[in-house]
Design a protein that fits this description.
Distance between the termini: 45 Å
CATH superfamily of the largest domain: 2-enoyl-CoA Hydratase, Chain A, domain 1
Strand content: 15-25%
Radius of gyration: 21 Å
CATH class of the largest domain: Alpha Beta
Number of helices: 15
Number of domains: 2
Order of helices and strands: HHHHEEEHHEHHEHEEHHHEHHH
Structural class: alpha/beta
Number of strands: 8
CATH topology of the largest domain: 2-enoyl-CoA Hydratase, Chain A, domain 1
Oligomer: single chain
């Protein structure tokens, strides 16, 4: 059953009517409804184009959070071979919100790390809705150190509303873990590519995305805080999330103008959830295009380029 977002309700009605007609035809073979159903399909396609033409920042947030979007696990299974997961931070526990390990991408040995939200109630609880605890960031650090030691490029897949803000996480050094993960990203002498596949929330995302190259799916978002959180702080009213989303400039298009993001990856019409295979294939092509030139660079040049990127970040947008 398709999950429709709030702004897609008119579309849901039309597609629902088309499906009802076809269900009636299946029950009664003498009925010929294909012409009427095709007309409804055409109307639905036109409406879908209108809805996704120039989405507002808040609507992009809704699409980025869509439960049927492909998640980290889906990308790893589709794009990587010989994936061998590595667990634990060798200190406290294994955080299931963060998954990663050794793999091959186009036969190139790599380390892949990402945040996994889960796809149903059980897996979402197990994965803590993609919100990592300190041990998750320390696991990522361990995997990045492994990659640096053996000269393996690192690919990160970012999809988190933010780091977990619970009492236990704070007691175990959440902010320190995030800071050290960010530091490790910046100090790697191997190529680091990050793809924002859904939500890129706060320091929880930056700790994985301080990369040589950062790409975002067309309808993903990347921000220092959620629109709801921003609205609660600035206006003391979470219902002003629409205004906050616009002010935060969290869309892929805005961030590319600012120089925060290097590439915007197109999504199928209606978002990645409408054609998961096409969206995953687009991400694979983007990773290949970004990784190939980096693999030709020497370790010191990779480190220098990453440092320069972050020192210059935002200058394009300020100059404009």
């Amino acid at each position: 059953m398709t999950h429709y977002l709030e702004f897609e309700k008119p579309l849901a009605e039309i597609e629902g009517k088309a499906e009802e007609l076809r269900a009636l035809a299946r029950a009664n073979e003498e009925m010929d409804v294909e012409k009427e159903a095709a007309a409804l399909d055409k109307k639905a396609d036109d409406m879908l184009k209108d809805l996704y033409k120039g989405l507002s920042a808040w609507r992009k947030c809704q699409v980025a959070r869509h439960p049927e979007r492909p998640h980290c696990k889906d990308y790893i299974e589709a794009l990587f071979t010989e994936y061998t997961p590595l667990a634990g931070d060798r200190n406290f526990a294994d955080d299931h919100a963060v998954m990663g390990g050794l793999a091959r991408f186009n036969d190139q040995p790599v380390v892949v790390i990402g945040q996994e939200k889960g796809h149903d109630t059980t897996s979402r609880i197990e994965r803590n809705f993609g919100m990592a605890r300190p041990e998750g960031y320390r696991k990522a650090i361990r995997l990045m150190e492994l990659a640096d030691k053996f000269g393996l490029p690192v690919i990160t897949l970012v999809d988190t509303p933010g780091a977990y803000p619970g009492k236990g996480a704070e007691e175990r050094g959440q902010s320190e873990a995030i800071a050290r993960s960010t530091e490790k990203c910046l100090s790697l002498k191997v190529p680091l590519i990050s793809i924002i596949i859904g939500e890129g929330g706060s320091g929880g995302a930056v700790a994985f995305a301080s990369a040589n190259k950062v790409a975002m799916l067309e309808h993903s978002v990347y921000s220092v805080i959620t629109p709801e959180g921003c609205a609660s702080i600035l206006w003391k009213d979470a219902e002003k999330m629409r205004e906050a989303a616009e002010a935060l400039r969290l869309t892929a298009q805005d961030l590319q103008k600012l120089g925060v993001v290097d590439q915007v990856i197109p999504e199928p019409l209606g978002g990645a959830q409408r054609d998961r295979e096409a969206a995953i294939a687009s991400v694979g092509k983007a990773i290949e295009a970004l990784l190939t030139p980096l693999m030709k660079k020497k370790p010191d040049a990779i480190l220098k380029d990453r440092r320069k990127k972050f020192l210059e970040m935002g200058s394009k947008g300020l100059a404009a």
